[in-house]
Amino acid sequence: xxxxxxxxxxxxxxxxxxxxxxxxxxxxxxxxxxxxxxxxxxxxxxxxxxxxxxxxxxxxxxxxxxxxxxxxxxxxxxxxxxxxxxxxxxxxxxxxxxxxxxxxxxxxxxxxxxxxxxxxxxxxxxxxxxxxxxxxxxxxxxxxxxxxxxxxxxxxxxxxxxxxxxxxxxxxxxxxxxxxxxxxxxxxxxxxxxxxxxxxxxxxxxxxxxxxxxxxxxxxxxxxxxxxxxxxxxxxxxxxxxxxxxxxxxxxxxxxxxxxxxxxxxxxxxxxxxxxxxxxxxxxxxxxxxxxxxxxxxxxxxxxxxxxxxxxxxxxxxxxxxxxxxxxxxxxxxxxxxxxxxxxxxxxxxxxxxxxxxxxxxxxxxxxxxxxxxxxxxxxxxxxxxxxxxxxxxxxxxxxxxxxxxxxxxxxxxxxxxxxxxxxxxxxxxxxxxxxxxxxxxxxxxxxxxxxxxxxxxxxxxxxxxxxxxxxxxxxxxxxxxxxxxxxxxxxxxxxxxxxxxxxxxxxxxxxxxxxxxxxxxxxxxxxxxxxxxxxxxxxxxx
Length: 543
Description:
The chain is an alpha+beta fold. It is 22% helix and 31% strand.
């Protein structure tokens, strides 16, 4: 804010930007009103048409409250969230992917330059890693049994331990106090002090672990191709399914709907939920085995890489490829701002959406590791412009400008939360835990009312004929039988048989019409063209 003085008198305070340009208060109000539109809950109600004065007054008060809350949210966005994401910008004929990490380190501040490091532990690798949702803590696991928990804010080691057996994967649970490690025979759960809490023997020899934080489910895939879901709050095994597609160590969770995607050696990607023994989707993505999977933060975009040396970007709303890029990738990961990192051998490539919204990716940055390093996993650190790299000689961290969300929501993920805030958040998340039944491809269907099946309109002529036939049967007198065959129950049974015999031809005609209608609907559904990725699995006509 700047103070403007004229003739020695103190004038009104006028905001000043970094370029020295002055903005009037009217311009600021117009900007806030423009920002408030995206926080409004649709168009306001038309109160003029209401005749009930009481209802009209109540709705007017509510509409005024909605307007105030939208304006408060717009002011908070302008003044309390000043950080803006920035990308590398090239001048003239420069290319951003030619800029090295050394050049970036010279230009950034001291705290950012500390986030660029290389930890070398050649005897214990290759390494894999995982971050908490706030990006404050990192867990690393070496193939030779090394487990470590680090505080990334202070760059300090919290705990490390040696389990003396193979470790294939590591993942945090709902917060930094617990993490799970996939070891040689079984997965184990440890606390922050390195104490072993549980041994999950039902999972078997697990290759990959994923945690669904909204459902408190630990998902795993073992070397026999079995998919397990276990509730970590109650310890109950929610689901155990055989995929039937062989060994797979490619598993990712869609952040939008909680669906688990698996990549298989036949080039197919299957999507699962814990309440279905069969995959929700089975799509042919590549002509060779799947080598990497990754989901965009929106959940509508998926990236896959295969041994056919292709990287494909998929639109999961239509199950069609948006873009096919040449190249091979052993690991893929999307950042919070939509950057795509791919790694193979000792080479890292960062792709960026060239024009926001079109999902047409182009090369943004590149980084070459020391010759001989074999990259195992790439993972963007949340709320930081940092990419973590787990490789055969340890783990590294490089700076990727524009990859992280610049402003964090303390109610969602707070990197500076205290122990009391962590306890409160844990209780609230347990109370808000979603049941496994809420995992589905389209979560917007949750809470909606299932439409009633349209019943056929009553056929008055047919009903009249049925009633006439029943009346004629009832009017026929029954013959008197010999003793023992003329009981009241026998007579009622005979009369009921006659009524059913009269109704039968009309019921058979109705069933025939329903069957013809269902066959017609099936022919119409078969005429609808399936997406290319699903055509292979369509039922073929019998010749």
